[in-house]
Write a structure and sequence with these properties.
464 residues, alpha/beta, TIM Barrel, 8-stranded parallel sheet, 3-stranded antiparallel sheet, globular, disordered C terminus, binds 2-acetamido-2-deoxy-beta-D-glucopyranose
Length: 464
């Protein structure tokens, strides 16, 4: 009870801080920074203990480390909503294999948590490539599995939950092409990479991989992955596409079988598919929101895919530079807003589930790119999600693609954000974290007010 009162007092303080700050643009917003901002400037990464009151919220979060669940269109933990500011770092397992690079895993968790991020999406696959987890079907490298164990146990230390993706559509780290190659090696009559989705033997390979990962007992914590609250959700596949069947039937059938398969082994964790979110044949009236006409041809179908039993929440990615034009343009921001709004609306009205924008970012290699543009893009995404969050809506969160520690440039595809070198971006991220942390605690059933009452607190003209 004592805690609760302390928390309530802190919360009121926090409200004052944030209400003041929320009327100005996040990028230029320095009003929330306190006297310690000079010190932060030196460190580059603002400390959670010194900025934006995250530490105050932290005091209220002394509950046990419990599974994330879904209630209606919200994520919840310990009866509190769990709106997410998170990030991607795909290579964590691979770096954790070797002692010389393992420290980078810790660094990225440390830096991300210092700006209040709570979820990381990363690969729990690496098929027959450098430092492979799965060397051949159902044959695993124990050292690499131990590296994944490390990633999971290290994430918990920094109070970061993981979305673990179980396969790749693309060839990096193996992907569906590698499964097809294994099939060929085993004498199967397969040719197209999309046989990954349809060939019964390849489906079995994938299902075995899923089973192995979910039943893994972490050698560092002794916790079975399927029992571990550090894992936020399972992702069936990174960006599945099945261009060989634009009707979407082939992929739909695969999703049905695999979502059920995951749930059968692990009923506790949430499941998402990993699609990019393109509208498909089942919703011709929504295809206007796609970035281009090709998007309807890739065999995915946002609404239909997410109606599958066992799929708990929706995902979409946001890449104006890859989907519309590589040349940076202000019009990209308009696309991004409309893309997000349409998906949030669908998640709310048609799917009745939360949605996570599981990858978004901009490449520094794009013509016309500059750091200000990147901050504006991130701010725009954050604002749009907050518009849903503050109403208790389906906009469950966003995951930046991607956050790297220093000294990992060789892994960078152009999108990497090194927080310690990007103070302005760190400030944007921190502000979003503290705002979401505020909503998460404010809407707690443990407090006297509910989400709805917060309208009284916020200035109605406040557009964030
Ligand atoms: C920031 O964090 C670092 C490492 O935890 C610590 O050494 C430093 O004193 C902190 N700075 C402030 C301003 O709290
Ligand atoms: C291999 O599959 C193709 C297409 O699915 C089919 O046309 C062909 O007859 C098959 N070949 C054999 C040897 O079964
Ligand atoms: C895990 O289990 C083993 C064997 O039961 C035990 O020796 C070890 O101390 C346990 N480790 C942890 C971290 O609980
Ligand atoms: C940054 O890029 C945007 C978009 O290309 C452009 O409009 C803006 O003028 C640039 N700003 C600077 C400071 O270069
Ligand atoms: C926020 O939501 C309101 C309706 O609830 C809508 O009119 C407005 O355009 C939204 N703003 C953004 C930036 O999404």
């Amino acid at each position: 009870m004592k805690r609760l009162q302390l928390g309530t007092i802190s919360l009121v303080l926090l409200l004052i801080i944030l209400t003041k700050s929320s009327t100005t643009n996040a990028v230029e917003d320095d009003s929330v920074k306190n006297e310690e901002s000079d010190k932060e400037e030196q460190n580059h990464v603002p400390n959670s203990t010194s900025s934006y009151g995250i530490e105050i919220v932290g005091e209220m979060e002394e509950d046990e480390w419990e599974m994330v669940q879904k209630r209606g269109n919200q994520f919840v933990v310990n009866e509190k909503p769990f709106y997410i500011n998170g990030f991607n770092t795909y290579w964590l397992m691979v770096f954790a294999v070797d002692e010389s690079t393992r420290g980078k895993v810790t660094e990225v968790f440390q830096q991300a948590s210092s700006v209040g991020m709570t979820v990381c999406r990363t690969w729990a696959f690496n098929d027959a490539q450098w430092r492979a987890l799965q060397k051949s079907p159902s044959v695993y490298d124990e050292d690499v599995f131990k590296a994944l164990d490390f990633v999971v146990s290290e994430a918990k230390k920094y109070k970061i939950r993981l979305i673990l993706s179980l396969a790749n559509n693309w060839e990096a780290y193996g992907g569906k092409a590698q499964y097809v190659k294994w099939g060929k090696d085993a004498g199967l009559n397969v040719s197209s990479d999309d046989d990954f989705f349809s060939h019964p033997t390849l489906r079995t390979y994938y299902k075995n991989h899923v089973k192995t990962v979910l039943n893994r007992v972490n050698t560092l914590t002794n916790i079975t992955y399927k029992e571990d609250p550090t894992i936020f959700a399972w992702e069936l596949m990174n960006e599945p596409r099945c261009t060989s069947d634009p009707t979407g039937d082939k992929l739909q059938d695969w999703i049905q079988e695999m979502a059920f398969h995951v749930k059968k082994i692990d009923a506790k964790h949430l499941v998402e598919i990993g699609v990019e979110g393109f509208y498909g044949p089942s919703t011709p009236h929504r295809t206007q929101f796609n970035p281009n006409s090709y998007a309807t041809q890739v065999g995915t179908d946002f609404i239909r895919n997410h109606q599958v039993l066992g799929v708990d929440f929706a995902s979409a990615h946001i890449y104006a530079d890859s989907w519309i034009s590589q040349q940076i343009s202000e019009s990209h921001l308009e696309f991004i807003t409309s893309w997000m709004k349409s998906h949030i609306e669908d998640a709310e009205k048609h799917l009745g589930m939360p949605i996570i924008f599981a990858e978004f970012g901009v490449s520094s290699k794009d013509p016309g790119y500059n750091a200000t543009y990147r901050d504006n893009l991130i701010t725009s995404v954050y604002k749009t999600i907050l518009n849903s969050t503050k109403k208790g809506g389906s906009g469950g969160g966003t995951l930046l693609w991607q956050v790297f520690p220093e000294g990992t440039d060789n892994m960078d595809d152009g999108y990497a954000i090194v927080l310690s070198k990007s103070p302005s971006t760190s400030a944007v991220v921190s502000l979003q974290s503290s705002r979401l942390a505020l909503f998460n605690s404010m809407c707690s059933s443990k407090f006297q007010w509910s989400c709805k009452k917060k309208k009284v607190i916020y200035d109605p003209h406040d557009e964030f």
